[in-house]
Amino acid sequence: MASSITPSIHSSIRPSRLPSLYLLPSRISPNHVLLQARSRLATKSTRLAFSPLPEIPNSPVALEFSRKPLRIAGWSPTIRQRGSIELPVVKAAAADSEGHVEPAKNFGERFPALLTGFFFFMWYFLNVIFNILNKKVYNYFPYPYFVSVIHLLVGVAYCLVCWAVGLPKRAPIDRDLLLLLTPVAICHALGHVMSNVSFAAVAVSFTHTIKALEPFFNAAASQFVLGHQIPLSLWLSLAPVVIGVSLASLTELSFNWIGFISAMISNVAFTYRSIYSKKAMTGMDSTNVYAYISIIALLFCIPPAVLIEGPQLIQYGFRGAIAKVGLFKFITDLFWIGMFYHLYNQVATNTLERVAPLTHAVGNVLKRVFVIGFSIVVFGNRISTQTGIGTAIAIAGVAIYSLIKANMEEQKRFIEQ
């Protein structure tokens, strides 16, 4: 019987899958399979193992993770040690064939027409507000020399504050540049003061009608002072300007010689300012140049204001203005007309840099139309039919002149290129 049992054990037990046994009959003869079974009974706590997984001890063991990010196919590194997930970012900027990513365009680059229109609107708006507020001040404080000083003083203070914060950074000035800018500043001061004298003496609309003659003085100075040949077509376009201003002046209800002559002197002064500005062209940016011109012009405007209006200001001017509107309104009005004067000139310069000469010429004519129209509506100035026709003819002549001159400049630039 023992012999019959032994073959069955041999046939059913394989070395790799031998179970653990606690008792074996002593009658079974030893062989290599039973010896392997007995060797596994060395310890008393031997138990059946049904899983090949290693046993996990009861004591906690600190687990260490690799600092290398886990990568998933098709993604950038997504799962990091902190457990954060980074999804691939879709960039709005376009990339070229070499992989260079173009920076995103700002609002001005995407909508240049809207930004240019905004500059034109602010130019007109600030100019109209300045002219209206300036005239209202003259209605209760008719001292144009002192008001001209306030205009420049507020602008200079604004420039000094901008220099102090570094927007823009102040450009150094030497003796040679000072000598070049001084004639420009003198003409700027004279033209500015005479314009204010005219604004205080007559209606704003009439002053701007007289100032429509400025292109005529520019052409005359270019021809007879600088020696530039002015085409006949340009001279012919100025004929409606002269005729229109003459018609408007004959029947202007607010006409007086002080206002008329002051506006004419302003035209001459601004014409020579343009001539000297061309000679004073330097590498300095326009913002710093305008700041230095304002400072020098302020120094030239103070003496006439003190000599001509000083005694009257002390006795009557300040007291009368404060009695009419109060101290606070009087000071704030002077401050705001200075700010609007400086800001509209600055915005006009920014607008000129953004557009072609032809567009700027049309915009300048439309600005004068806006100022004349708003001044008539706000102040209720009565104008005769002949004055209205003469003003329209003068503005039309300025428009024709500006268009012809702008086309000539563009053709000259095209030839030079």
TrEMBL record:
<keyword id="KW-0812">Transmembrane</keyword>
<dbReference type="GO" id="GO:0015120">
    <property type="term" value="F:phosphoglycerate transmembrane transporter activity"/>
</dbReference>
<keyword id="KW-1133">Transmembrane helix</keyword>
<keyword id="KW-0934">Plastid</keyword>
<feature type="transmembrane region" description="Helical">
    <location>
        <begin position="145"/>
        <end position="165"/>
    </location>
</feature>
<feature type="transmembrane region" description="Helical">
    <location>
        <begin position="387"/>
        <end position="404"/>
    </location>
</feature>
<dbReference type="InterPro" id="IPR037185">
    <property type="entry name" value="EmrE-like"/>
</dbReference>
<dbReference type="Pfam" id="PF03151">
    <property type="entry name" value="TPT"/>
</dbReference>
<keyword id="KW-0813">Transport</keyword>
<dbReference type="InterPro" id="IPR050186">
    <property type="entry name" value="TPT_transporter"/>
</dbReference>
<feature type="transmembrane region" description="Helical">
    <location>
        <begin position="327"/>
        <end position="344"/>
    </location>
</feature>
<keyword id="KW-0472">Membrane</keyword>
<keyword id="KW-0150">Chloroplast</keyword>
<dbReference type="InterPro" id="IPR004853">
    <property type="entry name" value="Sugar_P_trans_dom"/>
</dbReference>
<dbReference type="GO" id="GO:0015605">
    <property type="term" value="F:organophosphate ester transmembrane transporter activity"/>
</dbReference>
<feature type="transmembrane region" description="Helical">
    <location>
        <begin position="288"/>
        <end position="307"/>
    </location>
</feature>
<keyword id="KW-0809">Transit peptide</keyword>
<dbReference type="GO" id="GO:0031969">
    <property type="term" value="C:chloroplast membrane"/>
</dbReference>
<feature type="transmembrane region" description="Helical">
    <location>
        <begin position="365"/>
        <end position="381"/>
    </location>
</feature>
<feature type="transmembrane region" description="Helical">
    <location>
        <begin position="232"/>
        <end position="251"/>
    </location>
</feature>
<feature type="domain" description="Sugar phosphate transporter">
    <location>
        <begin position="116"/>
        <end position="402"/>
    </location>
</feature>
<feature type="transmembrane region" description="Helical">
    <location>
        <begin position="257"/>
        <end position="276"/>
    </location>
</feature>
<feature type="transmembrane region" description="Helical">
    <location>
        <begin position="113"/>
        <end position="133"/>
    </location>
</feature>
<feature type="transmembrane region" description="Helical">
    <location>
        <begin position="177"/>
        <end position="194"/>
    </location>
</feature>
<dbReference type="InterPro" id="IPR004696">
    <property type="entry name" value="Tpt_PEP_transl"/>
</dbReference>
<protein>
    <recommendedName>
        <fullName>Sugar phosphate transporter domain-containing protein</fullName>
    </recommendedName>
</protein>
